[in-house]
Amino acid sequence: MIGLIQRVLIDHIESTLGESAVRQLAADAGIETLGRRIDTDYDDAECLRLFDAAGKALGLDQEALMALYADIFVKWTLVHYPMFFQMADSAQAFLARQPAIHASMGAGIRDAQLRARVNDKFRIVEQHPGRLVVEYRSENGLCGLYRALFRRLLEHYGERGRCEETGCMHRGDDYCRFVMHFEELPA
Ligand code: HEM
Question: Which of these, 20, 29, 134, 157, could form a disulfide with 91 (CB 3.0-4.6 Å)?
Answer without folding.
Answer: 157
